[in-house]
Specification:
The protein is 44% helix and 15% strand. The protein has helices at 20-26, 43-53, 84-110, 117-121, 132-142, 148-156, 171-180, 190-193, 196-208, 223-235, 267-281, and strands spanning 3-6, 32-34, 57-67, 70-77, 169-170, 184-187, 213-218, 239-243. Strands 1, 2, 3, 4, 5, 6, 7 and 8 form an eight-stranded mixed β-sheet that branches. It starts with a strand and ends with a helix. Bound molecules: adenosine monophosphate (AMP), zinc ion and fe (iii) ion (2 copies).
């Protein structure tokens, strides 16, 4: 069992990159990958800790990209975290976050729920990766909402009155950025938000842009969704990966490796990913 989709305090998770590998060991995981949103800042610490714990680990990242009228998440595995183009693009995305956070706070203030930027940054280990989850926590602390879920349901979810869309790369740009940094691009949780027919329509377009796989195992998939993703990957000869999307206490119902309880990502996902990376770097 492995977990290839994990967030730390380098984005919106609650465990530090250093604390994730020991947790992986205690959960009996055979390999892990850190995939923070728009940041590779946690990777050195994560890999160092993984080596000390003796758990195989891979550098990763999760990019929130634009595809047609919606957002689509791309995971990048085995990226070179010193790649200049990648670092510049991530820095640009994070700079845009700061302006966007202020616009969200302006909207919330107009709605009668004033917050300062400092209230939000209190919940972000790295101010540059602060976003909606941190605004949600600040709203809970002020007593505006009972919990993070209510903050998203009423104010911060996509298209809700406090939400401001982020500046994004296109899906094609995101995939190419990952490839050019030596990584493998995987479509994250394709059946979490997209229908089965969208999956069949969009996958060939992304594959033509350089996508190499689909995330077939994921916390909130039904068995039917999982089988559907596996089938499309097989038909198109794509890799399959999987992970919990663990965020720690920020998403308390998802546990490392096991998701909502039934997740089990096979070791062969890890083996195939490494095989592909090794043939590339030879
Ligand atoms: P942002 O990058 O600032 O747009 O925030 C996106 C993050 O918010 C996602 O990665 C999730 O961790 C979290 N998120 C999005 N929608 C919800 C929701 N409905 N409930 C709880 N967390 C959410
Ligand atoms: Zn997140
Ligand atoms: Fe995602
Ligand atoms: Fe994620």
């Amino acid at each position: 069992m492995v977990d290839l989709h994990i967030h730390s305090t380098a984005s919106d998770g609650s465990l530090s990159p250093r604390d994730i590998p020991p947790r992986g060991v205690s959960c009996s995981l055979h390999a892990i990958a850190l995939t923070d949103h728009d940041s590779v800042a946690g990777i050195p610490e994560f890999l160092e800790s993984a080596a000390a714990c003796g758990i195989p680990a891979l550098a990763g990242v999760e990019l929130d990209t634009q595809f047609e009228f919606t957002d689509l998440h791309i995971l990048g595995y085995g990226i070179d975290i010193r790649n200049q183009a990648l670092l510049e693009a991530l820095a640009w995305i994070r700079e845009n976050r700061t302006a966007r956070n202020q616009r969200m706070l302006d909207k919330l203030s107009t709605l009668g729920y004033p917050l300062e930027l400092s209230d939000v940054l209190e919940f972000a280990a790295d101010p540059e990766t602060a976003g909606r989850p941190h605004v949600a926590q600040a709203m809970v602390k002020r007593g505006y909402v009972h919990d993070i879920r209510e903050a998203f349901d009423r104010f911060l979810g996509d298209g809700k009155p406090g939400d401001v869309p982020r500046t994004r790369l296109s899906a094609t740009e995101g995939i190419q950025l990952i490839r050019n940094a030596g990584g493998i691009a995987i479509w994250a949780h394709p059946r979490a938000k997209f229908s089965g027919s969208s999956l069949r329509k969009i996958t060939p377009i992304l594959a033509a842009a350089g996508l190499e796989g689909l995330e077939a195992y994921y916390s909130n998939y039904t068995p039917t969704k999982m089988r559907e993703v596996l089938r499309v990957a097989k038909e198109m000869n794509l890799l399959v990966t999987g992970g919990s999307d663990f965020h720690g206490t920020c998403k308390p119902d998802i546990s490392l490796g096991r998701g909502m309880g039934n997740l089990r990502v096979p070791d062969e996902c890890w083996a195939h990913l490494l095989e592909r990376l090794n043939t590339r770097n030879r």
